[in-house]
Amino acid sequence: MLRLRDGVVELYKKVATSLPPDVEEALRSARTAEEEGSAAASSLSVMLENVRMARENVKPICQDTGVPVFFVKVPAGLSQLDLRETIFDATRIATAKVPLRPNAVDSVTEKNSGDNTGAGFPIVYMEETRSGTLSIDLMLKGGGCENIGQLYKLPIEELGAQRDLDGVRRCVLDAIQKAQGRGCPPYVVGVGIGAAKDQVTRLAKDQLMRKLTDVSPNEALAALEKRLLAEINALGIGPQGLGGKTTALGVKIGVNHRHPASYFVDVSVSCWAHRRGRLIW
User: What pTM was computed for the model?
Assistant: First the structure.
């Protein structure tokens, strides 16, 4: 487990200091699309320079290194308890080594643990798989963009949102309209639809792990993702809320079956510094 622990420490360093290629490419495309000399173009240029300097100097892209969220696919027979302990040990080491900003605060005492570990921190989702390969996905989820996420229970009369995909569409647009520039756009938007509140909030975060170039195999969802991206970018909020053509880099939607009486939609939003990565073991 010591080698795995060191691998997770390196995963932390990679995710904190270097954007995934698809996200960086999307930012470059957005910079090209904005009007030369505009606040939007200038803002995107600063972001890209920040990305370059962080990678070259091996320093965190943002001072808020966020909440670590792990999605772990575990081969049968491998101890999930040992894996969780390994991830927590790696988190303590990475906090000092990368370094990561200590963000784990006791909700009762208000004391910071100082090492990014505590009750339910980092967040670790585990799923057993028939594969013989251990897969560890990590996302560093900034506090500002987490705060602007929204949970909806359809129908919602004031939005004209019924229990259907158009109702989902109205929820997503409402969430981004309310967010404006407070979560550091351009955003990546994850959407979860399903039977229960806790189910859809996880599902929405799952969608943020998809590559921006990924297309849903469900034609209806693929069409909605494309439409929502265009409609969000038509809002004119723009990079950092300064106006422009690029409010979002991507929209990804996941669906679970639901109860006949329930239709929950969660909208999870990531900032432009969409930090995620994978370790295969």
Answer: 0.95
